[in-house]
Amino acid sequence: MRLFADQGFEQTTVAEIAETAGLTERTFFRHFGDKREVLFAGQDDFLQLFIDPIDAAPAATAPYELIARSLASAGDFFPNERRAYSRARAAIIAAEAALQERELSKLAMLKLRLGEVLRERGIGEPAATLAAEIGVMVFHLSFQQWIAAGERRSMAQIAQERLAALTALVTQ
Amino acid sequence: MRLFADQGFEQTTVAEIAETAGLTERTFFRHFGDKREVLFAGQDDFLQLFIDPIDAAPAATAPYELIARSLASAGDFFPNERRAYSRARAAIIAAEAALQERELSKLAMLKLRLGEVLRERGIGEPAATLAAEIGVMVFHLSFQQWIAAGERRSMAQIAQERLAALTALVTQ
DNA sequence: GTCTATAGTGCGATAGAC
DNA sequence: GTCTATCGCACTATAGAC
């Protein structure tokens, strides 16, 4: 992160990263499948925040309500103290198309996982996939707003507002 | 496409592609920013199909209705004759994570462009971005269903059904 | 069109942890 | 004694500079 922030992602070689970390290039690639992956690894607990409230919900809970709970829970990953760090990381990603691609890819994986969890609850198609897509989409848009300049509201609050806006949009 | 289908995307070198096309490697990269791009270039008319019906709609048309018209129009890009080709292309993309990433990236660009068009009509935020996200998301899921084994319905029909399912999901 | 830097892979050797 | 982390080295393809 320090190297990327100072000189840019593209301008930083894997050799530099490895040296800074006191390792060899070969070892870097043992831990990370590619150079971009170093910015996205270790998001397992983040994923779990989406899933836990779904697992904990009563069996009859409607998909929409599950998504709302999932979003509220995911907000815990982004307390106010994390905002500065998230902004710095987002700036690095925003500066490089290759990193934006990887971010979209990670969000797509989250969608797939969420869809699975919903289907395991007996929610059918296309509802399960649609609910997963909506949940992750609202999360993503909310996150972008959360790190916007001057924004002070919490992630959970923004997400709730965005989900309501989506509902309003669809029911015009 | 032929080379990718026969031996896989990763196993096909740019040198091979260039030679097959009767060009040099350097010329390939002059036309395409990177190797993956060759599978995604020239989608401008596709993009326009989303935008045209929005431009043509009466000023007071609600965002949801705009999206519905956009989806109906985009369906024209996928007549039944195109289905076999789309399946073959999708199979190539599905076999390679790097290509799936690029596809998501292209869809994200489409979202951005659609959002712009909606804002130019005076639709505010977050409605414009949400509508664009919903439109492209429904398109993407519908496309995946359209190329699913045994599926015979038209793109427009599937998209309409998916959009209705989304509405039902959110309004329960 | 030529040249070169860098990402990423395959295989093997070594050292330490349990 | 097996398992895992690191390293060394040779090699190829992409991609960019000039």
How would you sum up this structure, described in words?
The structure is a homodimer of 172-residue chains. The first copy, chain A, has 172 residues and is mainly alpha-helical. Chain A is 69% helix and 0% strand. The first copy, chain A, contains 9 helices and no strands. In chain A, helix 4 packs across helix 5. The relative contact order of chain A is 0.12. Chains A and B meet through helix 7, helix 8 and helix 9 of A and helix 5, helix 7, helix 8 and helix 9 of B. The first copy, chain A, binds a DNA duplex (18 and 18 nucleotides) through helix 3.
Short description:
Chain A has helices at residues 2-7, 14-21, 25-31, 44-56, 63-74, 83-94, 97-120, 127-146, 155-170. Chain A is mainly α.
Number of helices of chain A: 9
Helix content bin of chain A? 55-70%
**Unreliable segments of chain A (pLDDT under 50, ≥5 consecutive)?**
none
Main sheet attributes: strand count, strand direction, barrel closure of chain A: none
Distance between the termini of chain A: 43 Å
Count the beta strands of chain A: 0
Tell me what portion of residues of chain A adopts beta-strand conformation.
under 5%
Radius of gyration of chain A over alpha carbons? 18 Å
Identify the quaternary structure here.
Answer: homodimer
Structural category of chain A: mainly alpha
Order of helices and strands of chain A: HHHHHHHHH
Overall 3D geometry of chain A?
globular
Biggest protein-protein interface? A-B, 28 and 29 residues
* Overall average residue pLDDT of chain A: 97
